[in-house]
Amino acid sequence: MGQSPDDPTPFAEEALARLIDGNQRFFQGEVRREPFRRETLTELARAQRPYATILGCSDSRVPPEWIFDVGLGELFVVRVAGNILSPEIAGSLQYAGSYLQTPLFVVLGHEGCGAIGAALTTTLEGKEFRSRVQLLLESIIPGLPDFEKHLSRQEMLSRAVEANVRWTVRQILDSPEGKVRSAEGSMKVVGAVYAIETGRVRFFAPEEHS
Question: How many structural domains is the chain composed of?
Fold first, then answer.
């Protein structure tokens, strides 16, 4: 998989296509589990060259390497409850972009996210959780949408999960680093939601991030 320094977009599109293909295999139960080679560790000890960065939730049911059917060294993965953006997370993403030069960034949320559900509970019921958990939830709440009164709690959660992904994508794109790399055309950021019950990842269309 090659990349032209003057035109990194095809590389990002190819990286996205690899993730889509990998998830399709996972969804269909046709993962490629190739025999592990000890030489792989030797090669990776010299350098890592991931083709995509994934910002995902810490939920144990959402391991990016599994759901995209990839091997060691293919993804740079950052995981935090609620797939939020914080200074520490932003630093990890900047490292991936500046030093590992991954052109594709995926913000991966998932259905039934507990962190998003807790943020909804705080917003709708005024309930507060333990101090550090509540601090994390405060990073989610500003991105939650206004809900119609007729919606069920499950429908609210589903919409909130998607809104939270879009909120994180927008924060990345609006950051100083994001603006520079977007202007250069050296970074593609996409949002996605993983369905735990089926194993399928739905990637957002670009207009869904606005």
Answer: 1
Average pLDDT, stretch 109-115?
98
Lowest mean pLDDT among 21-35, 63-77, 116-130: 21-35
Nearest to 83 by CA among 167, 159, 26: 167
Which residues, at least 6 apart from 77, have a Cβ–Cβ distance to it below 8 Å? 53, 54, 56, 64, 65
Ramachandran assignment for 199, one of left (phi > 0), alpha (psi -120 to 50 degrees), beta (any other): left
What average pLDDT score do residues 99-109 get? 96
CATH number at residue 53: 3.40.1050.10
Displacement of CA 84 from its chain's centroid (Å): 9
Nearest CA to 171 among 203, 142, 134? 142
Answer yes or no: is 205 within a domain: no
**Is the pLDDT assigned to residue 60 strictly greater than 60?**
yes
CA–CA gap between residue 200 and residue 198 (Å, rounded): 6
Residue 210 belongs to a domain:
no
Range of the domain at 53: 9-27+48-200
pTM of full prediction above 0.85: yes
How long, in residues, is the chain? 210
